[in-house]
Design a protein that fits this description.
seven-stranded mixed sheet; 454 residues; single chain
Length: 454
């Protein structure tokens, strides 16, 4: 079994991934020599290099660190990758990212956050509340915190906050003290096969909670009664049958003010400066964790009021009276539904245009009806071609599958023609959404919209 205390050199295959880079930073801060490979250079890999990690961008074993005593790879790397094959064939300890997280949850008090959506926001919010209040934690996140501009930070406190990824079942290796479960909607059916199999995995996740541990689950989840834990708290946006919920929610300048009702406690006039009613619900989950840890209510309230969110999670790229532009990672029908409904509620009367880049051929094939239904909540839709990520094309599966079912005006536009197309459009409320490379359009679109106002 891996002993994190005896590792001197670590080599990462796929170091630029959001989850991989958090672990690379964990080892780097421990003064362990970190190096790695990734397919392309990105702003994140450049940051890792600036922090002292040696990275190359060619699959070439001669460039890899053969003196490393731990090799960590991401499941997105194919088994045919020549570096990965070489390390496996030459007797190195080769593990997945989730194996490292498994060891961390064994050795620290672990707070893990799982769910098909909401997990990045909830885990980052928990980590921020714990840090801002002075409680302290080690944070392993799946997004970049706007407050700290990073996805990992460390602390002397023996507490870890970990985003638990359901992709390839890796989250089932974790053994949390506090487990949060935000959603169980069907996704990753290329891995799980059926929605029922996916639900079984989430149920198993709750069975892995340590003795005397606590489950904090969203109220009303399907098969809620099968979620097992020594202690259980259910949270909701506004349902007062739950153990924790919000009351008296008021919209305020693109954010919200609300009261939080907790077991035996009430925190009044909590301010959240994030868009999206779903983020109020996410805040209830994060506040519930802080309450269980005994953090003072005034410190919780102060932290929530200064939380700036996560890059690409209802992130305001432009926000003025006549132009609002929101960028979001939403890549599942339910995430799109929450995103569009929240934006329209916050900015009533503004025509809502959504630019969406579908992510994965399998997800598009399996969820085309749901995507079309959610996107039809907008006033106008611009679809980009499917971003393939790790997949090869599937015959008959394209953005047209979604476009043909959408009930509002829809146009399919290649990514490199989007700016040109937008120059001819009025978009008082514009949203870009997707998990592929659509984020590369954010800054150019923001510049275009701001120039148009001049």
């Amino acid at each position: 079994m891996m002993d994190l205390n005896n590792i001197k050199r670590v080599y990462f295959i796929g170091i630029g991934g959001i989850g991989m880079s958090a672990i690379a930073r964990f080892f780097n801060e421990k003064k362990i020599a970190v190096s790695g490979y990734d397919r392309t250079a990105t702003p994140l890999t450049r940051q890792l290099e600036e922090e002292g990690m040696k990275i190359h961008y060619t699959d070439d074993i001669e460039l890899a660190d053969k003196e490393a005593n731990l090799i960590v790879y991401t499941p997105a790397i194919p088994a045919t990758h020549s570096e990965l094959k070489w390390f496996r064939e030459n007797g190195y300890e080769v593990v997945k990212r989730s194996d490292v997280l498994q060891e961390i949850t064994r050795s620290l008090f672990a707070i893990t956050v799982a769910g098909t959506h909401g997990k990045t926001t909830v885990s980052t919010m928990i980590a921020y509340i714990l840090t801002d209040s002075g409680y302290g934690c080690n944070a392993f996140l799946g997004g970049i915190s706007v407050n700290y501009h990073k996805n990992f930070w460390s602390s002397e406190k023996g507490v870890a906050v970990i985003e638990a990824d359901e992709y390839d079942r890796s989250f089932l290796k974790l053994s949390p003290d506090i487990a949060v479960l935000t959603a169980m909607d069907a996704d990753h059916l290329d891995i799980y096969g059926t929605p029922e199999a996916m639900e079984e995995a989430f149920i198993q996740y709750t069975h892995n909670i340590k003795p005397n541990g606590t489950l904090i689950a969203k109220f009303g989840l399907h098969r809620n009664n099968e979620l097992a834990a020594p202690n259980k708290l259910l949270y909701s946006l506004q349902n007062d049958v739950a153990n924790a919920y919000a009351e008296n929610i008021r919209m305020n300048n693109g954010g919200y003010v609300f009261d939080v009702v907790l077991p035996g406690k009430r925190i009044e006039n909590v301010e959240l400066h994030l868009g999206g009613m779903h983020n109020v619900e996410n805040a209830i989950a994060a506040i519930s964790v802080a309450q269980i840890l005994g953090i003072d209510s005034d410190k919780i309230k102060a932290a929530v009021s200064t939380f700036k969110g996560i890059k690409r999670r209802f992130e305001y790229a432009v926000k003025s009276d006549d132009q609002v532009y929101v960028d979001d990672y939403a890549h599942h029908p339910e995430e799109l539904r929450a995103l569009i409904n929240s934006a329209k509620a916050l900015f009533p009367g503004k025509k809502a245009t959504v630019i969406f880049q579908p992510h994965l051929f399998t997800r598009t094939r399996d969820l085309a009806d749901g995507f079309a239904e959610s996107l039809s909540l907008a006033d106008e839709v611009i679809l980009l071609p499917i971003y393939p990520a790790r997949e090869l094309p599937i015959e008959g599966v394209s953005s047209e599958m979604i476009a043909s079912k959408i009930k509002v005006p829809v146009t399919i536009v290649p990514k490199d023609k989007v700016l040109e197309y937008l120059q001819t459009q009025e978009t008082p409320l514009l949203i870009t959404a997707g998990a592929g490379d659509i984020d590369q359009l954010k800054d150019p679109i923001a510049a275009l919209l701001q120039n148009n106002k001049k």
